[in-house]
Please model this.
Amino acid sequence: MEVASRKINVEKSKTTKINDVDFDNLKFGSVYTDHMLVCDYKNGRWENPKITPYQPISLNPASKIFHYGQSIFEGMKAYKDANGEAWLFRPLDNHKRLNISARRLAIPEIPQEHFMEGLTALLNLEKDWIPTTPGSSLYIRPFIFASGEGFHASPADEYKFIICFAPSGPYFSGKVSVLIEEKYSRSANGGVGYAKAGGNYAGQFYPTQLAIEKGYNQVIWTDDNTHEYIEEAGAMNIFIRIGDTLLTGPTSDRILDGITRKSILELANVQGIKTEVRKISVSEVVEAAKSGTLKEMFGAGTAAVISPIATFGYQGTNYDLPELPDSYASQLKKSITDIQYNKSEDKFGWRHKV
Ligand code: PLP
Ligand code: COI
Model:
């Protein structure tokens, strides 16, 4: 990949919105910091990285993003420790996955230096925006979309890579209940399910709306072929504890390879929690719920961290999960967030100082 100068031009905002933000009552991803990073792909190379005041972008109506949906994104967080130092969690894994998504959507890959230098420069400028209220962090949204024009159904020749930040609180408020989906599918073999493509989320909104109308927060996707196996949720990978074993499905070209998921598997292994990565059938989970061996279900993701599931619905019946005092979810959430917020030793080398 040919790369022009990586020198980042910085245009600082003359005002700040930081004093208008209620840092004690942050929602997820709904207020944005003062600056953003923008880098253009033109003439076959990424060029002209710049930090500007946070502002709308102007696009030609014929830009291919509007017609053919060439758009991918990542989700990361920056955390502040008790000494005011800022940290990222496994950022190179996000960069790698962004490029995996890029390849699948015929979008030019972004070099690691562009990604990391742009992210670090923007974070250094916006450090004061990293919240310190417990459970809060600075949500980071890097994305790439087709800005190039034309109605011809083919990849664009111009793209924009942008990074924006949003100081954020928890993704879910209150107990999480999920509906195991029997009709719609999120992804299929050979499709784009493993990519963080914008269209993957658009396709989920309608079935999720139907689930919300029935009183659930999220859909649990099942395999598109038989709807008999549990895959993942709209924004999380899924873990299920039956007896003392923690189960999660294998990744595939239908499932997003979550960074939280793989971190939890490693943490569970060092903490002596037995794990199995294998196909999990819905009937097995329903049977375990009926017999009392189903102990926990939780979702895992950057935005959701570890979100325990209180109820799941399937074929018109709701199954409630017990509230365990020392659940795997609470143990693993503590371990992962202690590493993220620099409260514990990081034997894995996951923490990345900004
Ligand atoms: N699955 C989907 C569909 C997601 O959107 C996400 C969120 O990024 C995840 C799983 C969890 O991935 P990660 O832990 O890398 O955030
Ligand atoms: C994340 O966890 O970062 C995600 O990207 C989920 C998002 C769809 C809210």
The radius of gyration is 21 Å. The chain has a mean pLDDT of 96.
